[in-house]
Amino acid sequence: MLPWKRLLRPLAALVLTAAVAILPAAGTAQAATAPSSGWNDYSCKPSAAHPRPVVLVHGTLGNSVDNWLGLAPYLTSRGYCVFSLDYGQLDGVPLFHGLGPIDQSAAQLSAFVDRVLSATGAAETDLVGHSQGGMMPRYYLKFLGGAAKVNALVGIAPDNHGTTLSGLTNLLPYFPGAEDLLKATTPGLADQIVGSAFLSKLNAGGDTVPGVRYTVIASQYDEVVTPWRTQYLSGSDVHNVLLQDLCPLDLSEHLAIGLLDRVAFHEVANALDPAHATATTCASVFS
């Protein structure tokens, strides 16, 4: 990678952050008062315009708050009932989640969706996940009955077919016992390695299930889920999007695309309400 690209990435993140800062103060107020404006507010009732609650699914090492300080207020300010959960916590590891076995995490998501649907009275929900959170729900949809309760799954930088971590996982065979140690201590990480038993089961017979709309939003600068093209899904009712096709100036990598990229957020909003979608461009950072 050219050195100037490395330098531009943090610059792009700063520009996006600055854009968020100069947006109307209402956006900030939403973040500060999320529970009363729809974020994990179980008294929130979906509107006719947005009849399905949105469940946000954090990524590996994320949690229900920090991963969504950007997107949750963005969606609540647009009238959505928004909820987020913690999943995959290991004993003795606070704050950092998504490390437990992914099939068990999917079961936790299943229970959470049931809770949200019961509270809101909605028949279905929409799921939006970052990284592991964009991939793990596919297990719920495919094996745990989630397809009957989910209208759409939007994955932001999801590791749908695993990751090589920029080639680092290819070194595991050269360190005897390293892979077994990874499986024993952080099974959620081991499950995400290309070729894992979990991913083989997840992707056998096709990437998607009938009745669910899928959107994948990827960045060519992703350094965590690699190669980035493996994030894409194949199947009916799939929309794969490259962030740089929407805004060539957007240099967001794996974290920025999920944490603060309003160009990506705009495309999430389009995926949640395709009937009222508007073109996503670099100017969407100000929308």
Provide a compact summary of the structure.
Residues 1-31 form the signal peptide. Helix content is 38%, strand content 11%.
Helix content: 25-40%
- Please work out how many helical segments DSSP would assign: 13
Q: Which outline best applies?
A: globular
Q: What average pLDDT do the residues reach?
A: 86
Distance between the termini: 32 Å
Strand order of the largest sheet: 2-1-3-4-5-6
Unreliable stretches (pLDDT < 50, length at least 5) are 1-36
Rg, nearest Å = 18 Å
Please provide the count of β strands: 6
Biggest sheet features: 6 strands, parallel
As a percent range, the share of strand residues is 5-15%
Order of helices and strands: HHHEHEHEHHEHHHEEHHH
Strand pairing plus helix content: what structural class? alpha/beta
InterPro entries: AB_hydrolase_fold (IPR029058), Lipase_EstA/Esterase_EstB (IPR002918)
Organism: Streptomyces galbus
GO molecular function: hydrolase activity
Keywords: Hydrolase, Signal
Describe the structure.
One of its GO terms (molecular function) is hydrolase activity. Keywords: Hydrolase, Signal. Residues 1-31 form the signal peptide. This is Alpha/beta fold hydrolase. It comes from Streptomyces galbus. This protein is of the alpha/beta class. It has a six-stranded parallel beta sheet, sandwiched between helices. The chain is globular and about 55 Å long. Helix 4 (71-76) links the parallel strand 1 and strand 2. Helix 5 (102-120) packs across helix 7 (137-143). It has helices spanning 3-22, 25-32, 34-37, 71-76, 102-120, 132-135, 137-143, 178-185, 187-190, 197-203, 243-246, 254-259, 262-272, and strands spanning 54-57, 82-85, 125-130, 150-156, 213-218, 238-242.
